[in-house]
TrEMBL record:
UniProt keyword annotations, A-Z: Hydrolase
GO molecular function: hydrolase activity
Highest rank taxon of the organism: Eukaryota
Family (UniProt): Belongs to the AB hydrolase superfamily. Epoxide hydrolase family.
Domain AB hydrolase-1 stretches: 29-255
Name recorded for this polypeptide: AB hydrolase-1 domain-containing protein
Name of a matching Pfam family: Abhydrolase_1
InterPro entries referenced in this protein's UniProt entry, alphabetically: AB_hydrolase_1, AB_hydrolase_fold, Epox_hydrolase-like
Chain spans, region Disordered: 300-339, 387-406
Length: 470
């Protein structure tokens, strides 16, 4: 049965915000944040894919956009409001922690939320916009640069007002899907840079255009011009910012934003690592500004929920498991309330596979060794280090190295394959069967020996030479 995106409104900080949502969230929650001229609809492909993998996908229409309420007309647009709205949505839905995925100006509240609320953030993925510790400056750009034009109160309103909403959205999509920065000549307005003879991008249908037009007919362009264009210069200085969560960036190399002053330097020079110790960047050569709509499968492959939330089977997650930290939203809590990861097998983006126990590396190898089955040995050594041979006899008098005995307090163990494609957690020290871990797909654990799926798992644990690493 195909998953269908549902819709609701939540009372958040005095406004009714429209929220699109899909999925049960057994493995955690992913919050998508759109840009301009986008709306919840722009993340439709990724929302369904994430939900199919076991997550709950949430995509609010930003305040003043689409089906969400308009703020008071005299209210100044503020990034802090967007951050507070995200927090309000998580609270309203009783979501303790979420993974944030932002696009275009939606990246800004995603970054800021992670800085302000690291305890509520599992990780951040952003498309198209790098983190900036200082306000964006476009002083070197020509006067006809669209951001400078639209920042001027009343100018864009007059330009847009000459056309119906559908024509405005169409023109912006045509312009923004190109590789060149939209810049008007003297005496020319931005809407005149494309006309109806300019074809829509091949991946953007007339039906898609109708969906956007319908939503902007409801909201208009008043607040969308305030946020982001009349607010981005108000970003605070954050030269001492330090992200405590993993950050992943996806950049289409044919995104016109890549040509903004300083953007490519910021992404390729490594300077962002000063603020983001756990930063990974992926480039999509043919990707445009709307890469998540243009190439949804590639974006889905690059930017998916974090491995600590048991990353979806067919995708690459964008986050490593935290060293010695608790598992994701799908984990079962231990007796102390918070699950403790006592053994990890991790595959880093640099191709080095690592097995850890108690935060200490006990084995490592390269991706090839992991693929050939050495990863199973890493798991075994990690377990043996954390849980030496039990004093009592199990399994008819045999003691299995690395197995748990019944005196061990409830723990959580995480196994990962070489590409961080999957992780699943088990939380009982003994007698762990698939029936005791509801919501987990044991086939995707990659333990293909049927013996491990029968009776107890840990008491039957032996090195799995047939562990498959995709």
């Amino acid at each position: 049965m195909a998953l269908e995106i549902e819709h609701t409104h939540l009372p958040i900080r005095g406004l009714n915000l429209h929220v699109a949502h899909v999925g049960k969230g057994d493995l955690g929650t992913v919050v998508f944040l759109h840009g301009f001229p986008e709306i919840w609809y722009s993340w439709r492909h990724q929302m369904v894919a994430v939900a199919a993998a076991g997550y709950r996908a949430i995509e609010p229409d930003c305040r003043g956009y689409g089906l969400s309420d308009q703020p008071p007309e005299d209210e100044e647009a503020s990034l802090d409001d967007l951050v507070a709205d995200v927090l309000g949505i998580l609270d309203a839905l009783s979501v303790p922690k979420a993974f944030l995925v932002g696009k275009d100006f939606g990246a800004m509240p995603a970054y800021e939320f992670a800085l302000q609320h690291p305890d509520r953030t599992r990780g951040v993925a952003c498309l198209g916009i790098p983190f900036s510790p200082v306000p964006f400056s476009f002083d070197t750009m020509p006067e006809g640069f669209y951001v400078l034009r639209w920042r001027e109160p009343g100018r864009a309103e007059a330009d847009f007002g000459r056309f119906d909403v559908r024509r405005v959205v169409r023109t912006v999509y045509v312009l923004f899907s190109g590789a060149e920065i939209p810049i008007a000549k003297e005496g020319q307005e931005i809407m005149e840079l494309a006309d109806l003879s300019t074809p829509l991008p091949a991946w953007f249908t007339e039906e898609d255009l109708d969906a956007y037009a319908k939503l902007y007919e409801k909201s208009g362009f008043g607040y969308p011009l305030k946020m982001p264009y009349r607010a981005i210069h108000k970003i605070p200085n954050q030269l001492d910012a330090k992200f405590q969560v993993p950050v992943f960036m996806v950049m289409g190399e044919k995104d016109y934003c890549f040509k903004f002053p300083g953007f490519e330097t910021a992404m390729r020079s490594g300077i962002m690592n000063n603020f983001m110790p756990d930063l990974k960047i992926a480039y999509i050569p043919e990707g445009s500004h709307f890469v998540q709509e243009q190439l949804p499968e590639q974006v889905g492959h690059q930017a998916r929920p974090p491995a600590q939330d048991a990353g979806p089977p067919a995708t690459d997650p964008i986050e490593r498991l935290p060293k010695g930290g608790g598992g994701g939203g799908a984990g079962h809590e231990g007796r102390a309330g918070k699950p403790e990861v006592v053994a990890e097998v991790e595959a880093r983006w640099d191709g080095v596979a690592v097995a850890e126990a108690g935060g200490e590396v006990v084995a490592q190898g390269n991706a090839t060794e992991a693929k050939e089955g050495s990863l199973a040995d890493m798991i075994d050594r990690a377990l043996e280090k954390e849980f030496p041979e039990s004093e009592g006899e199990q399994d008819g008098g045999e003691t299995n190295p690395g197995s748990f005995n019944n005196t061990v307090s409830e723990k959580q163990v995480v196994f990962m394959n070489k590409n961080n494609l999957e992780a699943r957690t088990l939380s009982k020290p003994a007698n762990v069967t698939k029936d005791l871990a509801p919501g987990y797909s044991w086939n995707t654990l990659n333990f293909l020996n049927e013996r491990t799926l029968k009776g107890t798992f840990f008491d039957n644990y032996k090195p799995q030479t047939d562990l498959q690493c995709r």
